[in-house]
Amino acid sequence: MDAEVTARRIVFEKLAEVLDASAAEHSGVGVLVIRVCGLRRVMLGGGYAESERLLGDVGTRLGSVARRGDWLARIGDQDFVLLLPGVVDSGQLQLAANKALRAAVPTGQIRDGAVPIQLAIGLASFPEHGANADQLLWAAERALALAEQRSVPIMMACAEPAERENENWRMETLFATAIERGDLELNFQPKIDLRSGALSGVEALSRWMSPEIGYVSPAIFVPLAERTDRIEKLTWSSINSALQQLAEWRCAGFDPSVAVNLSAVCLAAADLSERVHHALNLWNIPGPSLTLEVTESAVMPDPQRSFAILQDLRNLGVRISIDDFGTGYSSFAYFRTLPADELKIDRSFVEKLTSSTADGHVVRSVIDLAHRFDLAVVAEGIEDAATAGILTEMGCDIGQGYYFGRPAPAREVLAKAGALASGRQLDAALR
Predict the structure, then answer these.
(1) Beta bridge partner(s), residue 294
(2) To 10 degrees, the CA torsion angle through 47, 41, 76, 88?
(3) Is residue 276 predicted with pLDDT exceeding 70?
């Protein structure tokens, strides 16, 4: 994480320097944020070292098409930034993006096979899309996100820096108020034992219905919480509220396990185990009833320290789940030392099971190897019976997704559990 923060700071400083020079010369500046999209399969098949080798190759090829005076840097796990001083129009910027696409490695070699590698590129230019480094880089990153969302290789930014800045300020203010007032509430999504069809547990997910602007997606407010240093408060509020709800359910005779997402900030805290222990005691909840989900990207930057902290939590009886498995750093080599109880296969693999043979091989390999190390496997993002059937045949332990039930308020969870016991699909009971 520190390396990524340092890289971003260097990019900001360099971009600010380039913008100052361009403003003095009354010339434009182009920014390309370039993402290597096929990297997750490289990581799964060959590990972190293989993905780093591939990124180095991509960086070399991108550098080969840069002009004299252009500036290229890697930023984050799979992104590069290319600064283009002297860009005069959008056509020149588009041409640079096309050259980058042609130069990129078409496939990544992993041992005996080849994995397709694609680039997604977000474009922005000064002064059209931003008046300073922050606005310009944000515009390019937003364009990149749209390119990935729409499955296109290149996307140009929209000229809206002033509106975006005002909207960001308003959203941050509303979110800060919502956190202080306790406006966010938990919804719970069922996790289903794929062999028996029984309710295995629930995952607690934060939801925000703002009185001022209505429903706000977690895809918006979670990154906002991380950016404004409120993610720690959000995480602990979720853990405490989930345990409180579980205590109420247990008094009513309903005793599911509850999973809560643990942020990278909280994972790095020295008093994490102590605080979790206190929360369990406060609500009289046994450790095995709580599952903490952590992402690979939170664990792997300092695996030795993270593994020790996760083991401390397991000593309390708390179950550890590795969330979004397959999208981060780890490789199969970490299975033998990973202090976890389950893996959650990322939905990007699950959603293509009925159409992608390659994703099927990846999912089956993860399930088989996880079972060899006594790890349960959860598949998220199941949206139809066909996908659920494939995963059951593969031996996946637990399923989660809209096919079994959408996240719902606590008051509806008992009704969902009753619907499941009567043999009906959980989400059908909510229609």
Answers:
(1) 322
(2) 140
(3) yes
Q: State residue 408 phi and psi, 5-degree precision.
A: -140, 155
Q: What is the pLDDT, as a whole number, of residue 51?
A: 67
Q: Which of 38, 46, 3 is nearest to 330 (CA)?
A: 46
CB 380 within 8 A of CB 401: yes
C-alpha distance from residue 388 to each of 134, 396, 431 (Å): 44, 9, 21
Decide: helix, strand or coil at residue 143: helix
Joined together, the tokens standing for residue 101 give 């696409």
Q: With helix as H, strand as E and coil as C, how does 353-417 read?
A: CCCCHHHHHHHHHHHHHHHHCCCEEEEECCCCHHHHHHHHHHCCCEEECCCCCCCEEHHHHHHHH
User: 78: which DSSP letter?
Assistant: T
The pLDDT of residue 111 is above 50: no
Q: How far is CA 251 from CA 163, 244, 255, in A?
A: 50, 11, 9
Task: For residue 125, list its beta bridge partners.
Answer: 30
Residues in the chain: 431
Q: CA angle at residue 43 from 39 to 44, to 5 degrees?
A: 120
Q: For residue range 194-237, list pLDDT tens digits in order.
A: 999 999 999 999 999 988 888 888 888 888 888 777 899 999 99
Q: The dihedral of CA 52, 53, 58, 62: what is its sign?
A: positive
Sketch the domain layout of the chain as residue ranges: 2-159, 170-430
Class in CATH terms, 170-430? alpha beta
SS3 194: coil
* Amino acid, res. 288: P
- Look up residue 36 and give its two tokens: 């290597």
Architecture of domain 2-159: 2-Layer Sandwich (3.30)
128-144 pLDDT per residue, tens: 888 788 888 888 888 88
- What are 422's two structure tokens? 């009567």
Give the DSSP per-residue string, 244-284.
Answer: HHHHHHHHTT---EEEEE--HHHHT-TTHHHHHHHHHHHHT
Tokens of 187: 């919804």
Residue 325 DSSP class: E
Phi-psi sector, 204: left (phi>0), alpha (psi -120 to 50), beta: beta
Bridge partners, 206 (sequence order): 186
* Three-class DSSP category at 330: coil
Chain-centre distance of CA 403, in angstroms? 21
Per-residue pLDDT tens over the stretch 355-391: 888 889 989 988 998 999 999 999 999 999 999 999 9
Comparison of pLDDT for 416 and 148, the residue scoring more:
148
